[in-house]
Design goal:
Layout (H helix, E strand, L loop, with lengths): L1 H9 L1 H16 L5 E2 L5 E2 L5 H4 L34 E4 L30 H4 L5 E3 L8 H4 L8 H12 L19 E2 L4 E2 L18 H4 L3 H17 L4 E2 L13 E2 L2
Antiparallel strand pairs: 1-2, 3-4, 5-6, 7-8
Length: 254
């Protein structure tokens, strides 16, 4: 029947009549064509889509060959319950692991430390059987790197890391909590001193106050002296720390 229909369409006269009928269906002058299930076929569907392959032996036009004929299995999004135990025997069972006595694996796959006296011979301290699960997954599920990801575990880690931000930062140590000296919206510090009546030695002035006072200034002058001497041609080996500060860090040769 299909071969006859194709030879019928190959003839010029029959082809022109088929084309005329198709144009009439598109214009709404002729009734639409029905498939095997009694449903109307859209006349605007291309012929290479509506025509069925020859090996299907289709007697009438149909779109059944375009439908998905394979049903997806019932894929699950659950994951393995790691570390779960189901049953613990009191005596060794035939076919169980010779080392620990669990029924869910053999001695070659046992991850327990090899016992000096195995459970098969002592019949004591039988290990608990593991929970064995099998999941049916599709192509993407087998290659999904996020399988088994637990968001609640990650949330606990984030909560633990956020605790470190509760420490007071250095530039807020000299500020009164109830004052408006620090503006959190612009994250700026005003020019006025929030505690003008307090002792200046007890306030935090930043890390630069240690760089510009005490032995830091002496160390800076010694470095400048070493650089100037090196520029004048003297044989100087300086390790950025003067021998007076650290005797093993540098040597000055005159």
């Amino acid at each position: 029947v299909v071969r006859f229909a194709r030879s019928f369409q190959r003839h010029p006269k029959n082809r022109s009549s088929t084309q005329t009928m198709l144009e009439a269906r598109k214009a709404g002058l002729a009734p639409a064509e029905f498939d095997e299930d009694g449903k109307e076929i859209n006349p605007y569907i291309r012929q290479y889509i509506s025509s069925a392959p020859w090996y299907l032996n289709a007697e009438r036009p149909s779109l059944k060959h375009q439908r998905k004929w394979r049903s997806d299995p019932n894929y699950t999004k659950s994951w393995y319950d790691r570390g779960a135990k189901i049953f613990q025997a009191e005596k060794y069972r035939k076919g169980a692991c010779e080392n620990c006595g669990a029924m869910t694996h053999d001695a070659k796959s046992c991850i327990e430390r090899p016992r000096k006296k195995r459970a098969k011979w002592t019949n004591m301290h039988i290990a608990t059987d593991e929970k064995i699960e099998t999941f049916e997954q599709d192509y993407d599920g087998k290659r999904d790197r996020g399988n088994g990801y637990d968001a609640s575990t990650y949330a606990r880690v984030i909560e633990r890391n956020l605790c470190t931000w509760e420490d007071t930062v250095k530039y807020l140590l000299n500020l009164d909590v109830n004052s408006a000296y620090y503006d959190p919206k612009t994250r700026s510090i005003l020019c006025d001193d929030p505690l003008p009546d307090a002792d200046p030695n007890e306030l935090y002035g930043g890390d630069n106050q240690y760089r510009m006072s005490g032995q830091a200034l002496e160390f800076k002058q010694l470095n400048i002296h070493a650089w100037e001497a090196f520029d004048k041609g003297q044989d100087i080996i300086c390790r950025l720390l003067h021998p007076k500060l650290n005797s093993s860090s540098g040597i000055i040769r005159s």
